[in-house]
Amino acid sequence: MIKKIVTFTILIISTYSFAQKTNSSPYSFFGIGDQAKIKSVEEIAMGQMGGVLTSEYQLSFTNPASYASLLWTTYVFAAGNKLNHIDDGINKQSSSTAGLTYIALGVPIKENQGLAFGMQLNTAVGYSLLETFYNEEDILAETNLLSGDGGTNRIFLGYGYQTTFGINLGAEAAYIFGGIDNSIVNRRLGVQLATKHETNSYLKGFAFKLGAQYIKNISPRLKLKLGTTFELPNDLDEKGDQYLYSIDNNINQEFSIPRDTLVSDSYKATIESPLRTILSAGIGEDNKWFVGAEYSFQDAIKFNGPIYDESPTYNYTNSSIISLGGFFTPKFNSIASYWNRVTYRAGASYKKLGLVVNDTQIDDYGMSFGLSLPMGLKLSNINLGFELGKRGTTDNNLIKENYYNFRLSISLNDKWFSKRTIN
Predict the structure, then answer these.
(1) What is the per-residue pLDDT for 312?
(2) What is the rounded CA–CA span in Å between residue 42 and residue 189?
């Protein structure tokens, strides 16, 4: 068992930064990037609904109380691919990114406790925006090229405990870390040198989560499940350096080598994330079908620091998510038909991002579906998730995104604490 834990830990370390570029959204320009979905592929395939899910052999990340239901040691890792179509009302562009999203290990302890730990993508930055300005003769006179990449990851440790009366309790601690690079290149017609403003920042902090689930038998087969999760208030500390360079001025050239450093300075900032509450409810039959709904809400995130000066064009407000989803398995233990053992998932979600740009609230609408494909006759499975949605609008000089996400995870199961028998 110790050897297995060591091997898994080395695998986590080897993916330390999840270094692949995992975002290509103009909206990742704001704050510290797009907030990743801290959920499993199975949860996302059900419209991001997962606060009441319990399983003996699968991990759900929304509510740490779910770890109390584990009876099998579960290894899981996931990757995703995102295709993004961007429309500003005049021009259209497409981009694609891919990378790891999480790797985790769940371990049952006795028959009423479970432990899970791993690494997840937390936020992602990836954008390249070009502003153009023309003079009275309709000649390109000035450009601003804004670009950024990086993001943050989280290493987490969660624990779940199953009490009497159908109540599960759980807690989770996470360490968040990462780096973000942003730059703005300004070029003007008739000026010998252009300027480049660059910031290189590193973020770190802790986050904590508490969860509870209540499971009630309302008939010999049907179960009612209620869940609540509290993501406690937390701060991220940000430290970085900012530079102002002079560079060769070629208005059609995107990249130039800096010639002189005009300004070099260090800065500090703090990102304050208030309490986030997740309420979930659902009904279903174990290993057969389930339908549920989830609602989460949070006050506005606060950004404090010299690089987060108040802007007249955007601000942060309260955010919320409404999710609906479920799954269906024709016959969990079927021997005659493989497809009867496949689990089919579907869902939908509506999200208020908590971002207002040009007096316009940015919303996100999504639909999703997926499959859990058994591997042989064992509990291990391959999970496929498909998601399509729309974010933003072309109104008020904004950008609309139509995105298509594909996710894949592999879940492997084993018994680590089986009692030995003597023949």
Answers:
(1) 73
(2) 53
Q: CATH code at 23?
A: 2.40.160.60
Per-residue b or e along 250-285, where b marks 16 or more CB atoms closer than 10 Å to that residue's CB: eeeeeebeeeeeeeeeeeebebebeebebebbbbbe
Q: Are 57 and 327 in contact (CB under 8 A)?
A: no
Tell me if 287 sits within 8 A of 372, measured CB to CB: no
In the block, tokens 């499975």 appear at: 381
Chain-centroid distance, C-alpha 282? 23
Torsion of CA 42, 44, 46, 50, to 10 degrees: 80
- Distance in angstroms (rounded) separating the CA atoms of residues 383 and 373: 6
Residue 222 lies in a domain: yes
What are phi and psi for residue 418, nearest 5 degrees? Answer: -70, 140
DSSP result, 254-301? S---EEEEEEEEEEEEEEEE--EEEEEEEEEETTTEEEEEEEEEEPPP
pLDDT of residue 99: 87
- Number of continuous H segments (helices) and E segments (strands) in the chain: 2, 19
Give the chain's domain count.
Answer: 1
The pLDDT assigned to 7 comes to: 44
User: Which residues does the chain have with pLDDT short of 50?
Assistant: 1-17, 19, 420-423
Distance, CA of 379 to CA of 1 (rounded, Å) = 20
Which DSSP letter does residue 12 get?
H
What does the alpha-carbon distance between residue 219 and residue 221 come to, in Å, rounded to a whole number? 5
- pLDDT at residue 22 in the model: 59
Exposed e or buried b for every residue in 174-202, given b needs 16+ CB within 10 A?
bebbbbbebbbbbbeeeeeebbbbbbebe
Chain segment 70-85, per-residue pLDDT in tens: 999 999 999 999 999 9
| Alpha-carbon distance values, 78 to 238, 300, 382, 383, 409 (Å) | 28, 30, 10, 9, 4
> Tokens representing 360?
């316009």
Q: Which two tokens stand for residue 179?
A: 């780096």
> Is position 157 within any domain?
yes
416: region left, alpha or beta (phi > 0 left; psi from -120 to 50 alpha):
alpha
Beta-bridged to residue 177, according to DSSP, are 153, 204
Identify the domain containing residue 392 by its residue range. Answer: 2-414
Please check whether residue 420 lies inside any domain of the structure: no
Report the residue count for the chain.
423
